[in-house]
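Box S1 | Example of a co-folding query
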Amino acid sequence: MPHPNDPSLRSFVPVDVASDFPIQNLPYGVFSTAALPTPRVGVAIGDYVLDLWELEQDGRLADGELIVFAAPTLNPFMALGPKVWSRTRARISELLRHDNPELRDNERLRERALVPMARAKLHLPITVAGYTDFYSSKEHATNVGVMFRGKDNALQPNWLHMPIGYNGRASTVVVSGTKVRRPRGQLKPPTAETPSFGPCQRLDFELEMGVMIGQPSPIGEMLTEAQAEEMIFGFVLLNDWSARDIQQWEYVPLGPFQAKAFATSISPWVVTREALEPFRLQGPRQDPPPLPYLQQAQPNNYDLQLDVALRAAAMNKAVNICHTNFKYMYWSSVQQLVHHASSGCAMNVCDLLGSGTISGPEKSQRGSLLEISWNGTEPMELASGVKRTFLEDGDSLVMRGWCQGDGYRVGFGEVEGTIVPAG
Ligand code: MN
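Box S1 (continued) | Returned holo structure for manganese (II) ion
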């Protein structure tokens, strides 16, 4: 049987070459329809969702061990581990192949199991156990450092030695399309003598990838590179909304708190680590070499293109404001996970790790408005008469990501969020 990543595979479901969801991808999500409002697990293929609950009920998903797709989250499936993930993906690929009549010619099952994407409501794909956010793009950390500490002290002394992170909030991770309310908080601009409480004036996005942890690790245990990799189920696009003014006043000495706690948006389709395998590449050279526990024997970065577009309420269409690549990350997701467990910190099924803002070496590759507007000093013009330094009410922010194969792309769809007033 050909490998599910084989570029020559085709599905009987029509898939446009520009689609994010060819048979080589098969990302998992949770969806419902007006006809059947129960959220359940599906896989994206072209402009359709393949209903895995229907296939499971029809006995098409092997073994009888998989009674997990009627669940309203991916948590029970992810808990089954990498061997089952791999076997299930291979079976779904087989069922969708153009030369396999099993589903293709079974009209009754096909009608029930293939739902037009336009009719599907997409839900948060996992119940997030814990959320941790990192700060692993050297370009992003350098830009921010230059802004606030000057060129000579841009990177903090610890930065080149470990993936810096903080524990975020799982309770406010939301799915694409969820409106984001402008946060309120304590503000103390440098010119004010005392703080006040009110709506954030410097609301920002952060372009990140989210890593879905699919296996637990026990308290007290460290992880090897190989163990950490096996624990990663897949990836989503992630927008780590940030209140820069709240952050500036609150973050000393313990780091961000309310500035990051109000919302984190993720894309609805989880692209598996296995589907990204053909796009793996070596990350930037690490100098000084990391301590032995953080050293990597294999390339753990991905050639994954990323776009950010912004549309103000007065504009007809969104304008691209950033195009960068996940490959620039200095610390890989595997290194982040190894470091996270290095103290003996237990990891849970459905922990979510944010990569940290992904910027690149060029000006057009800056993954936040803080960098694009250089802390508000360089407004950008989106359309005639529409200028931005930070986000305003009614602004809609869309992130997209994809790996380009030969004649197909393994894509993530999008993560969108629109800002609504603090009220
Ligand atoms: Mn972040």
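The first helix runs from residue 52 to 57. The chain has two domains: 28-123, 131-420.
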